[in-house]
Amino acid sequence: MPHSVPSPDALGHALLAYHRGLDPAATLTVHSNVAEDEALPASYFFRSLWEMPELERLALDECQGRVLDLGAGAGCHALELQSRGFLVKAVDVSVGAVQTMQARGVREVACHELFAVPAEAGGYDTLLMLMNGLGLVGTLEGLERFLVFARTLLAPGGQILATSSDISYLYEDEEGALVFDLNGPYYGEVEYTMSYQSETGAAFSWLFADASILQDYAEAAGYEVEFLAEDEQQQYLVRLTLRS
């Protein structure tokens, strides 16, 4: 188990409490530096295929070959892919999330931070990053680093399927003009903490990359970029493949 796994584990304890029936209403409180506190029911991590947003269902349909599910949570995507016959490895930094996935029947699970995920012989045909999963990279600097790191994980001809969103709407004034601190960090770099009952997890960075900045970074790192779909919340699904 890597020593850098964050502790305490508010997310993991909420998922375990919900899964074990100890707290059927288990709810996380999500704190950020850009918005009001938000309630996130643990049940959301357990949704079935038809409870998933359309972008996630499309991403599952686009998966190919051996799949690495990054930031897998309670394993809803991994379980759906398993049911379709895919070989899936599900990874999360939360010890409790990993225990939840094991209890739910995800066959291959590991506890790793994103940049500690080991390469596998032959590589993965699909890296899957859902629920605004591109955010795992943390910052634009992390995105740049991840696009290099992903080459060590991908099989020849492999793909990254990821969702992200443009959160510029959070910075609109009353006239609809955008108000940014141009000297500050990129507006899509958000700081979060999550709490469950009396436990608050470690702070972490999460990236919301607008489509144009993602395209710039990915193309500079040698990827082909294909935007597959977008929803009304300005969230999009993108496919990244290495240029041959």
Automatic annotation (TrEMBL):
Superkingdom as given in the UniProt entry: Bacteria
Record bears the keyword ATP-binding: no
A GO molecular-function descriptor: methyltransferase activity
InterPro entries assigned to the protein according to its UniProt record, in alphabetical order: Methyltransf_25, SAM-dependent_MTases_sf
Keywords: Methyltransferase, Transferase
GO terms classed as biological process: methylation
Cited Pfam families: Methyltransf_25 (PF13649)
Ranges of residues in domain Methyltransferase: 67-158
Protein name: Methyltransferase domain-containing protein
